[in-house]
Amino acid sequence: MTDDMSLSGGVLNLLKRMAVDVLAGWVFLAVFLTTNNIYLATGVGLPIGLGQIVWMISRRQAIEPMQWMATGLVVVLGGATILFHNPTFAVFKPSIFEGCLAAMMLRPGWTIRYAPARARALLPRGLMLFWGYLWSAAWFALAASNLFVARVYGLRAWAIYTNISPLALLAVLFGSGMLIFPPLVRRIARQRGVSLAAPPAVG
């Protein structure tokens, strides 16, 4: 990853937390596809979700609000799925999480703080605002698509889709950013006669 689009610790931490959550999701998927029993798969996923929090607490790692929320959703909706023998609760879990993540991304300019100083100095603010809203729209669309897939194609298709689609979306968004922004920063720098090797002027 080039310096033009390197990410700050905040975004990296969020992605690390999501990567940890992927483990529980893939275990859930493996058990469900093997047994075709969503209640057993949910029961297996519950202790993994809780174990992640316990492990982080034991290592005195900071637990971000989104991580607490994700664990709460696993416990509450996973428990409701088993207790009421209704898979609808499990189906809504990823959509609620992704919807909340998308809502957080509606904050104007959230991408600006994660951009390196050079990009903040050269890229138009309107473009950075648009990029943040585009991320938000993409995650809202993903949240809605989970429910659509579950309703139209069934639980097995939903289980596969809901575990693969967030990773695919991240790859598309980050890949698009890498294709768009570094060349754009270099082009604007040339137009303004700014040396990218010089310290940026931000403010």
What is the averaged pLDDT score? Answer: 84
Please tell me what the overall shape is.
elongated
Number of helices: 7
Number of domains: 1
Task: Give the number of DSSP strands.
Answer: 0
Proportion of residues in helical segments: over 70%
Separation of the first and last Cα atoms: 25 Å
Description:
The protein is mostly helical and 203 residues long. It has one domain (3-192). Helix content is 78%, strand content 0%. It has helices at residues 9-35, 38-58, 65-84, 88-104, 117-122, 125-153, 155-192. It is elongated. The protein starts with 8 loop residues before the first helix and ends in an 11-residue tail after the last helix. Mean pLDDT is 84; it is low at 1-11 and 199-203.
Give the structure's gist in a few sentences:
The chain has helices at 9-35, 38-58, 65-84, 88-104, 117-122, 125-153, 155-192.
Which properties best describe this structure?
elongated, mainly alpha, disordered N terminus, 0% strand, 203 residues
Write the layout of secondary structure elements.
Blueprint lengths: L8 H27 L2 H21 L6 H20 L3 H17 L12 H6 L2 H29 L1 H38 L11
Helix pairs in contact: 1-2, 1-7, 2-3, 3-4, 4-6, 6-7
